[in-house]
Each structure stands twice: as structure tokens, then as C-alpha cells.
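User: I've been trying to design a sequence by hand for this structure and keep getting stuck. Would you show me what you'd pick, starting by listing the structure so we're on the same page?

Assistant: Good idea, let's start from the same input. This is the structure you sent:
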């Protein structure tokens, strides 16, 4: 079973969680937390998947684990692109549709994450008028011109879009951070922590480990 960061994990009930600390009371009383978790960017060992549970406010977040054998379903951000039209009455629909149309032209793999991705995956209403639009963009290696083209398109939209670029094995970085600082230093998030990197001679060079 291939499981990646930002995937949404469905499990039968909170009794299946492999928690190492006491489970907060709100987890037991929140629909969003009782059956779903979002995969965190951490190493996976012994088939224990690191997930984060969300409550009804930003303060209600709980990091825990679920064993692979207790996973009922894995919902990927990519798969949510196929059902965007099911959410045409939501405020974020026009933006997601615009992203879908443009990224289709560029043959890019992507998907909504954050609260919008969670809502689409679970049909649990967790978004508001102020919800950010977070997406993950999946590429095999850094393509400077492609990333700049994506950045230019994002600026034409009337909503703030936070784009996280995911590269296999390497990790992820924020598109805006990369475009502004790719020569001087941008942060790549890895399962083992953030690293300050730059692009030199079309290659990633690690400058510092935080």
C-alpha cells in the first residue's frame, strides 16, 4: 500500500488509533476526527502511518498513528480532481475548476489539500469563507520554466493559492518561496525535517539543515 503525505486516511473508529499519549476529549466528539486523519510528513516504520486529526478549530489538532491493517480507505489529493464538479455550489469551485483546466493543458498532476481537500474527501463541512486554497503539485524533478509558468498563472487568479510542490524522495517546497529564493535559499520539507537549499547548475544543493 503506497501512502503519501496529504493522503486522507479513513479508519473505523478512534479505538484503532495507535496513540502514545492521551487522546483529547474533542477527538471523541468531532465527526472530522472520529474516522479520518491526514498523513503527516514523517518517516513510516513498522507500518504505523503518522496522521493528524482535526477538530472544529485551528487549536484542535492531534498527531497520532494508525496501523496499516486498520485503514479502511486511502483518499489521495489527485483523486479529488476527478470530483471537483460535485462541489460546484461551494465558494472554492470556480478556482479549483480554473486550476483543473490549466493544469490539464500542462499535463500536471495535482490535488487540493488542507481544509478544502479534507471537505471534498469526507463530505464533512470544515471550510469557511476565509479558508485557504491549498494544493499539492506533483513533479518528478525541478523544472524551472514550468514552475515559473505555474507561478504566473496562479497570480492571475482572484484567490490566494498556496502551492506546495512535491518531488519523490526529495520532499516538498512552497512554490512562492522557490520562485523568490531559488538561488539564495528556499526551504525543502523532508520526512526528517526542513532543509535550506538552493539551485546551482540546475541541481539542488543543501545549504543548511534546521
Amino acid at each position: 500500500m503506497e501512502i503519501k503525505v496529504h493522503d486522507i486516511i479513513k479508519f473505523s473508529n478512534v479505538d484503532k488509533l495507535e496513540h502514545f499519549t492521551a487522546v483529547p476529549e474533542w477527538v471523541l466528539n468531532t465527526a472530522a476526527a472520529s474516522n479520518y486523519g491526514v498523513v503527516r510528513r514523517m518517516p513510516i516504520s513498522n507500518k504505523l502511518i503518522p496522521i493528524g486529526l482535526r477538530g472544529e478549530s485551528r487549536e484542535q489538532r492531534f498527531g497520532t498513528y494508525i496501523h496499516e491493517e486498520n485503514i479502511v480507505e486511502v483518499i489521495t489529493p489527485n483523486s479529488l480532481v476527478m470530483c471537483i464538479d460535485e462541489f460546484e455550489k461551494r465558494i472554492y469551485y470556480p478556482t479549483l475548476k480554473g486550476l483543473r483546466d490549466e493544469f490539464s493543458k500542462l499535463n500536471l498532476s495535482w490535488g487540493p489539500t488542507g481544509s478544502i481537500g479534507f471537505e471534498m474527501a469526507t463530505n464533512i463541512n470544515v471550510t469557511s469563507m476565509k479558508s485557504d486554497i491549498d494544493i499539492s503539485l506533483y513533479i518528478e524533478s525541478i523544472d524551472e520554466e514550468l514552475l515559473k509558468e505555474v507561478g504566473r498563472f496562479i497570480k492571475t487568479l482572484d484567490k490566494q493559492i498556496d502551492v506546495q510542490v512535491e518531488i519523490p524522495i526529495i520532499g516538498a517546497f512552497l512554490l512562492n518561496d522557490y520562485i523568490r529564493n531559488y538561488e539564495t535559499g528556499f526551504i525543502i520539507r523532508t520526512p526528517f525535517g526542513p532543509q535550506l537549499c538552493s539551485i546551482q547548475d540546475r541541481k539542488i544543493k543543501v545549504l543548511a539543515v534546521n
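That's my pick for every position. To get oriented when you compare it with your attempt: The longest strand covers residues 193-200. The two ends are 31 Å apart (CA to CA).
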